[in-house]
Structures are given as C-alpha cells and as structure tokens.
C-alpha cells in the first residue's frame, strides 16, 4: 500500500461513558458490539503536537501489530501468536484475554477489532481461534483509516516455536530489517496469494529507511508457495564465514518460527478504499536557497558575509613579530642618535623619543 493512515485520525477517538438508551426491534438490541466513540479535538499545544504525530505522513513510521485471541483457542495457536509477537518485539501489542465479538469475516464482527486498533494505534492485526470446522485458525489483516482494509485466513498445519531453535545460538538484533523472499510464481498469478504477499510484506518490513547497513542484515524471511493453498513460512539467520576472498561466504541457519500454512478464506479491500489507500502524495523538491547551477551542470553556491573591519579586529599576535618590532625600533633609535651627533645637535631623552 502507499501512504496509508494505518488506524490514525486527525483527532483522538475515546470511549464515551454516557448512558444511552438503545432501542429494540423485534426483541433484538441494536447496541454496537464496541463502545461508542466521540470525536475530541486538541485544546492545548501539546495535544495538537500529539495529533499531528498521529496524522498521516508521506513516509510512515513502522506499523504496530495487534495480537489477540478469539473466542476459543488451542495451544498451537497460542504458541504461533506468541512467536509472531516476539518477531515484531517493540512494534507489537498482545492481548491475553478472549474476545468473543471479534469476527472479521462476519457482518459487523469487525467493529470491536477496529475499536481496539484505533485505541492503541495499530495498523496490523493477528487473530487466533480454534473450532471443529476451522482448527488452528490464524487471521492476518490490515487496518486503514480506522476501518478493516483486508484480511487473510490461514490454517496452521505444522508449527515449530522459536524456543525449539534456541539451542543453535541464533537470534536477530533488535530493530534489524530482514530480507524477505517469496518463492513461487503463484504469488503473482493467484489473487489470494497476492494479498497474502502484500500482508506479509507489511507485517515484517518494519520501518521505512533510505539506506541499510549490510552488517544489520542478520535474518531472512522466506515464503514458499508449494501449491495453490499451501504456503511454507520460514525464518533463517545469516552467518558470514571466511571464504579466502574479500567476499564472505554466507550460511543460512533456521531460527524459527517455522509454519506450514493452508490458505482458507480472504476478504479483499473495496475498490474505492484500495484506490484511496494507494494514493501517493506528490512531494516537491525542497528549494535550496543561494544555490544555482552553471553551464557544466555543476552546483554553484552563494555565500553572504558582512563587512569585516580588520583594523579594529582583535587578533592574536605572535612573539616573533614582537621581537622584530623591538629590533626595528632599536635600529631606528640608533640611526637617529648618529644623525644628531653628526649634525651637532644634542641627544633627546628616551622619554621624549618615545613620545
């Protein structure tokens, strides 16, 4: 996606504690599944700065992810969500309680999810659930402008935790950016796998930067599409070994988590919302003052300096210059004394000569 507004609004949305009478039609209540929201504008400079920081940007900060449980979960799903939370580290928020009303594939079931993501400013979410019809169910999705953008439902067939690879002594540095590799032409031909690819890129890419230090590339995230519905997700750590040349030999060691996923349902973004989310602002080049170009396409700068009075400027004086001045003064005095004696005039006192 382009410059998205990942769960941000130009003003703060908070829960209202006022009691509101909810009408009933046919015995069914029309109460929303999430608390009512009201719009509050900034009243102080500090609040205005906070809202400006939450406003949409041309180059966004790293998207935070919300990890939460559904109505029922299994031990496998709990371990998967824990590993996804550890991979994001400081860019992830995890809920430990069950959420019965969070059902993104049912009409109205996304309202509670949108409320939570607005409240803690998260643009990504990972929802885990378990049922007889859909065992070990994992839903990955994105939020745009406080609304559900899209989501993909995956089934966990096999999982190896991060702790199972801890004996190898592998790990990633905090804040490092991974290399992300997608293997298989189905990521370009199938619509659902295209959406999964875009979601995984948003989930693992982290903060957008202009340049990357090669020493900071310490892990690889690889997704392989074996069939139309089976995707293997692996993560490897990068080790640089001696090769006898200036170019080191690269060795990949699996560091976890290891997931075998089956693609189930997906919810695509509406056409209008997708068009709005993919808009890129036109960033004009910032004008540089006092800088021009010549005929040879070179850069020419202009420097403005005030008039400097060198005569009255306090400058440091070297000892060697003082010695030369004393010698010149002594020679001048001797020459004056000789000329007076030669002309028969009396010599002046030292004080008079100095005057």
TrEMBL record:
Q: Which Pfam families match?
A: Brix
Q: Name one GO cellular component term.
A: nucleolus
* Record's protein name: Ribosome production factor 2 homolog
Q: Which domain of life is it from?
A: Eukaryota
**What PANTHER family has UniProt attached to this entry?**
BRIX DOMAIN CONTAINING PROTEIN, RIBOSOME PRODUCTION FACTOR 2 HOMOLOG
UniProt cross-references to InterPro entries, sorted A to Z: Brix, Rpf2
Location in the cell reads:
Nucleus, Nucleolus
Q: Which UniProt keywords apply?
A: Nucleus
GO MF, any single term: rRNA binding
- Per UniProt, the ranges with Basic and acidic residues bias are 346-355
Q: Using the UniProt record, give the first listed, main subcellular location.
A: nucleus
Is rRNA processing found in the keyword set? no
- The organism of origin for this protein: Chlamydomonas eustigma
Say which family it is in. Belongs to the RPF2 family.
Q: Where is the Brix domain?
A: 63-272
Q: Has UniProt tagged this entry with the keyword Metal-binding?
A: no
Any one Gene Ontology BP term: maturation of LSU-rRNA from tricistronic rRNA transcript (SSU-rRNA, 5.8S rRNA, LSU-rRNA)
Q: What residue spans carry the region label Disordered?
A: 314-355
The UniProt entry, under PROSITE patterns, shows: BRIX (PS50833)
């Amino acid at each position: 996606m382009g410059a998205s507004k990942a769960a941000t609004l130009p003003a703060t949305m908070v829960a209202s504690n006022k009691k509101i009478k909810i009408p009933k039609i046919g015995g069914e209540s029309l109460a929303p599944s999430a608390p009512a929201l009201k719009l509050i504008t900034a009243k102080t400079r500090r609040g205005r700065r906070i809202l400006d920081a939450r406003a949409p940007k041309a180059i966004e900060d790293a998207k935070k992810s919300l990890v939460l449980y559904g109505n029922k979960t299994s031990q496998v799903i709990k371990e998967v969500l824990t590993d996804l939370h550890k991979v994001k580290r400081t860019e992830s928020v995890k809920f430990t309680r069950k959420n019965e009303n969070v059902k993104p594939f049912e009409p109205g079931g996304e309202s509670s999810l949108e409320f939570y993501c607005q409240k803690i400013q998260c643009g990504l979410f990972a929802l885990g659930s378990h049922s007889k019809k859909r065992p070990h169910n994992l839903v990955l999705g994105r939020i745009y402008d406080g609304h559900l953008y899209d989501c993909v439902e995956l089934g966990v067939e096999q999982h190896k935790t991060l702790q199972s690879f801890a004996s190898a002594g592998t790990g990633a540095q905090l804040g490092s950016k991974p290399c992300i590799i997608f293997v298989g032409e189905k990521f370009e031909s199938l619509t659902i796998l295209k959406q999964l690819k875009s979601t995984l890129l948003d989930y693992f890419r982290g903060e957008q930067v202009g340049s990357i230090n090669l020493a900071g590339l310490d892990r690889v995230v690889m997704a392989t599409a074996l069939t139309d519905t089976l995707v293997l997700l692996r993560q490897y750590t990068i080790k640089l070994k001696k090769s006898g040349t200036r170019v080191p030999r690269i060795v990949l060691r699996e560091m976890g988590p290891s997931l075998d996923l089956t693609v189930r349902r997906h919810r695509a973004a509406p056409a209008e919302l997708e068009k709005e989310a993919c808009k890129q602002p036109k960033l004009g080049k910032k004008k540089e003052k006092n800088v021009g170009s010549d005929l040879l396409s070179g850069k020419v700068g202009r420097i403005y300096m005030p008039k400097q009075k060198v005569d009255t400027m306090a400058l440091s004086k070297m000892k060697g210059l003082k010695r030369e001045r004393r010698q010149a003064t002594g020679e001048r005095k001797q020459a004056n004394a000789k000329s007076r004696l030669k002309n028969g005039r009396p010599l002046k006192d030292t004080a008079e000569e100095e005057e």
